[in-house]
Amino acid sequence: MKTPFLLLGLGLTTLPVLAQQNDPEPEPMRPGMSEYWNPKPAVVTPGVTMEAPSDAIILFNGQNLDEWTTDKGTPAQWKVEGNVMTIDKSKGDILTKRKFNSFQLHIEWRIPKDIQGTSQARGNSGVYLQDMYEVQVLDSYENPTYVNGQAGSVYKQTPPLVNAMRKPGEWNVYDIIYTAPVFKEDGTYLYHPYVTVLHNGVLVQNHTEIQGTTEYIGFPKVKKHGAGPIRLQSHGDPSAPISFRNIWIREL
Amino acid sequence: MKTPFLLLGLGLTTLPVLAQQNDPEPEPMRPGMSEYWNPKPAVVTPGVTMEAPSDAIILFNGQNLDEWTTDKGTPAQWKVEGNVMTIDKSKGDILTKRKFNSFQLHIEWRIPKDIQGTSQARGNSGVYLQDMYEVQVLDSYENPTYVNGQAGSVYKQTPPLVNAMRKPGEWNVYDIIYTAPVFKEDGTYLYHPYVTVLHNGVLVQNHTEIQGTTEYIGFPKVKKHGAGPIRLQSHGDPSAPISFRNIWIREL
Amino acid sequence: MKTPFLLLGLGLTTLPVLAQQNDPEPEPMRPGMSEYWNPKPAVVTPGVTMEAPSDAIILFNGQNLDEWTTDKGTPAQWKVEGNVMTIDKSKGDILTKRKFNSFQLHIEWRIPKDIQGTSQARGNSGVYLQDMYEVQVLDSYENPTYVNGQAGSVYKQTPPLVNAMRKPGEWNVYDIIYTAPVFKEDGTYLYHPYVTVLHNGVLVQNHTEIQGTTEYIGFPKVKKHGAGPIRLQSHGDPSAPISFRNIWIREL
Amino acid sequence: MKTPFLLLGLGLTTLPVLAQQNDPEPEPMRPGMSEYWNPKPAVVTPGVTMEAPSDAIILFNGQNLDEWTTDKGTPAQWKVEGNVMTIDKSKGDILTKRKFNSFQLHIEWRIPKDIQGTSQARGNSGVYLQDMYEVQVLDSYENPTYVNGQAGSVYKQTPPLVNAMRKPGEWNVYDIIYTAPVFKEDGTYLYHPYVTVLHNGVLVQNHTEIQGTTEYIGFPKVKKHGAGPIRLQSHGDPSAPISFRNIWIREL
Predict the structure, then answer these.
(1) How many CB atoms are located within 10 Å of the residue A8 CB?
(2) For residues D145 and A120, what is the distance between their CA atoms, to the nearest angstrom?
(3) Omega of the bond prior to A46 within 30 degrees of 0, cis?
């Protein structure tokens, strides 16, 4: 509350209302009154360093693409070798067979050491959350581009807080915490989607409100949707192909 | 938590953790433990129907424009007659001399009965919150226009939930609850501005997040600012002039 | 971002990254790129002063209690006379037959002119949102009580911002904007319920987060629920009976 | 919007408002209209696995407690050996000399392999954010206690989403993203503090709203405060002492 003031032409004042001598204090409590024993959080065995925790769904175990499909519903056919999957541009995007609501996603990705090109034509891919909202994958190591399109951005919306990119040839890690939107009956957001991203352990998106779809052209769009897959983009960019490994997800 | 499932190739399970027989219950409490007597809310005498409450700052008392100025700092010179102020297009916008942070604003406005024109060229004005964010004023009674530009919209951002417009010649009322943004050091929003608008007592904006400035062209912009005045727009629109009355504000 | 500093023992610095001379500016846009014409907000005819707008459900039309029932499912039997309903303590609470999610509610209430008693025993009733969360009704005109239990409070949680109470014998008005909670599968809130309350046109709750049920004793509880009725409380308080009139609701 | 319905006794309807044939579409845009090149995110060199990134403040480098003090302002005197600091119960809590607002904090902690005791008397310590809000440290490996007091809880408020505890003798990791509260002039929260916690890489707090101080007894309290240190608790618990290592923080 502001300090009292005379009202123009009315002569009224707001009187501060003071505590009174006989005002009761709230009754004292004891510690056990704020201690709950149930329900108990489930026990999860965490992975060592970068392994999946015990309650994760393994989306890529290094051996095959059994968890992945294509837009046509055919088997995903990117190259798998040495625990790593690599984009095959002739095969298009791949997406998970499973659909997810809110989740924690771990995914590692590598720009080829001999990457060529500049700006968006240098290691361009993307991780689409619920098949709607892209967290950009790009070589952002000493590669200027528009900031809402560099690695760690919510594409064409929110730049990363910092640029935590590793050099081409080294593995980058995204740890993504995604909260799915809640829609009103009319198809607009009651609550937006939100995303937190750690890039190589460095916070680059901090509970960022996602405005809508991550459009290449124009304003974000709001489209009602339910659970959706994770999509990995096979971008038209002619630079050398990006690899992924150690992909797991925990439903929240 | 989801139901347990076998992890691919790992053979681990998530075991549900059950309540145990000897789990303590939280200790019982008494009513007085959740009763606070201080600090006491200030006493405010509400107005009768549409009069200002006792703690409001009267921005227009029907007599003069003493609370208003222009962009040049000169005295505001719109027409004042019969408790009503009316836009004088030759005099430009007017804005309050006082600056505000978060507030509750009451303002009444009237489209002339003989209004001419269509779409945005029909009774166009606006109420700018902190001189940054426009709540649109327009004749939206049977006057099609883009919906994020009709009366009750956050201009070029969020359409009103419904169209609660009264006919030309009748008084419209806006009750606006505005929460000022909080900025980070880098000039971006830590928390966006939010606005709730009742148009003639009907909710048209429900704690709407304001994206940034309400630009005529292009995306909203984020510009760091502090307290700001209320601005009333003298729009270039050639249709007949809009009137205002009974304007008061309560700082929150 | 903070100013660069030397890292202890590492000798690294954070280098500010400057805009470069050849950085492109975003391409210019035109006004029509941010103008949407659909979907159009529904047209609602607002009430005159305190009448219901055209899209409201009339919960009390002054004639009968056809929209109300009791906990036993029997017809509501409070006294109806002269467009006013008055609590009959022998008949218990009444609640709407309809159930609601998010809504805008208008309700007027009056403390009898000859009210007796003090603190919570002076005109005690309540408006329960979705039958779960109480906005307190009480004579708070010069009647000290715990502040999170006075008129306009979210009972035992959040005091009103100010005390906008009218004298006994005069009509008080609540305009309540309520956003229903969203629950996670485990029965806890994904998003809390929120409430905004205008008391006689004065803001007393500003998008207040409701912590859980409004318990007489102890901490708020989180209980999963769906749509629910509006409940009006027949409190055990022995002071004179409270009246209500002009009750309408708009689903959001 | 809901489907139209007849209003009781008023005979009005809400008419759906349809798109019209000549409604303009928003003008098309080009990609460059949503591409920003400035300001550029600072470049941060991420650590390898668990090393600090280049813009972190190293709070414990394994060598000394130069960044820490006590409640009396005297030098912190816990035991430092082999890159590890260990609680000395005779020396009390330690807290950082620096004060922080919002931050990303990395801290590793270890329960002794030979821990004894049960419930809260088994490896009890805590990490206090801004010296106000405790993230609990405890041996929660097969050690039942109240769930809002186990490892990863916001103490006496919010249990962890899951129990991701490692065995006694192994190192646990907290990655904590903390957003400081914003206060109103009256000392209450305009925006609550929020915390996200990863425990051994597993999400245990997801942008959790902190209700107030983490009291041993009774309701959380709201106390206005500014920047504050990180406090590590030397708890009265008689079980064997807890160790910490690799502590770094990034201001947000």
Answers:
(1) 16
(2) 52
(3) no
| Structure-token pair, residue D196 | 């996200």
Amino acid at A198: L
Q: Nearest-CA residue of chain A relative to D147?
A: A37
Query: To 5 degrees, how large is the angle CA A103–CA A104–CA A106?
Result: 135
User: Residue A18, class by beta-carbon neighbours within 10 Å (0-12 exposed, 13-18 middle, 19+ buried)?
Assistant: exposed
Would the CB atoms of A202 and D150 count as touching at under 8 Å? no
User: How far apart are the CA of D85 and the nearest CA of chain C, in angstroms?
Assistant: 18
| Identity of the amino acid at C157 | Q
What does pTM read for this prediction?
0.89
Give dist(CA B122, CA B140) in Å, integer: 8
CA-based end-to-end distance of chain A: 40
**Cα distance between residue B53 and residue C163, in whole Å:** 11
Amino acid at D73: G
Q: What is the DSSP annotation of C59-85?
A: EE-SS--TTEE-TTSPBP--EEETTEE
Distance in angstroms (rounded) separating the CA atoms of residues A25 and A22: 9
B-chain CB neighbours of C186 within 8 Å are 1
The structure tokens listed for A16 are: 């501060």
Q: Are B243 and B110 in contact (CB under 8 A)?
A: yes
Min Cα–Cα distance to chain A from B26, Å: 5
Question: Cα(C115)–Cα(C168) distance, rounded to whole angstroms?
Answer: 7
Distances (CA, A) of D38 to A159, A208, B1, D74: 10, 19, 42, 45
Binary contact (A47, D175; C-beta < 8 A): no
Output the tens digit of pLDDT for each of chain C's 252 residues: 333 322 223 333 344 466 777 888 888 888 888 887 877 788 888 876 678 999 999 999 999 999 999 999 999 999 999 999 999 999 999 999 999 999 999 999 999 999 999 999 999 999 999 999 999 999 999 999 999 999 999 999 999 999 999 999 999 999 999 999 999 988 989 999 999 999 999 999 999 999 999 999 988 999 999 999 999 999 988 888 999 999 999 999
Contact C222, C212 (CB under 8 A): yes
DSSP codes of every residue in A43-57: E--PPSTTSPPTT-E
E strands along chain A, which residues? 42-43, 57-60, 68-69, 79-81, 84-86, 94-96, 103-110, 125-129, 133-137, 162-163, 171-179, 182-183, 189-191, 194-199, 202-209, 231-232, 243-251
The predicted complex's ipTM stands at: 0.89
d(C-alpha D129, C-alpha D148), whole Å: 17
Chains in contact with B via at least 3 Cβ–Cβ pairs below 8 Å: A, C, D
Number of A/B CB contacts below 8 angstroms equals: 115
Q: Are strands C133-137 and A243-251 parallel, antiparallel or unpaired?
A: unpaired
CA angle B238–B90–B76, rounded 5-degree value = 125
Contacts of B147 in chain C (CB under 8 A): 36-41
Q: Alpha-carbon distance B215 to D57, whole Å? A: 40
Contact (CB<8Å) A196/D177:
yes
- Scan for tokens 């899209």, then name that residue: C55
* Contacts of A86 by beta carbon, 8 Å cutoff, 6+ apart: A78, A79, A80, A241, A242, A243, A244
Q: What does chain C come to in residues?
A: 252
B48 contacts: CB under 8 Å, gap ≥ 6:
none
Q: Name C10's Cβ contacts closer than 8 Å, sequence gap at least 6.
A: D52, D54, D58
Above 50 in pLDDT, residue B102?
yes
pLDDT digits (tens, 9 = 90+) for D20-51: 778 888 888 888 888 878 777 888 888 766 78
pLDDT of C116-173, one tens digit each? Answer: 999 999 999 999 999 999 999 999 999 999 999 999 999 999 999 999 999 999 999 9
Closest CA to A181 of A146, A138, A133, A143: A133
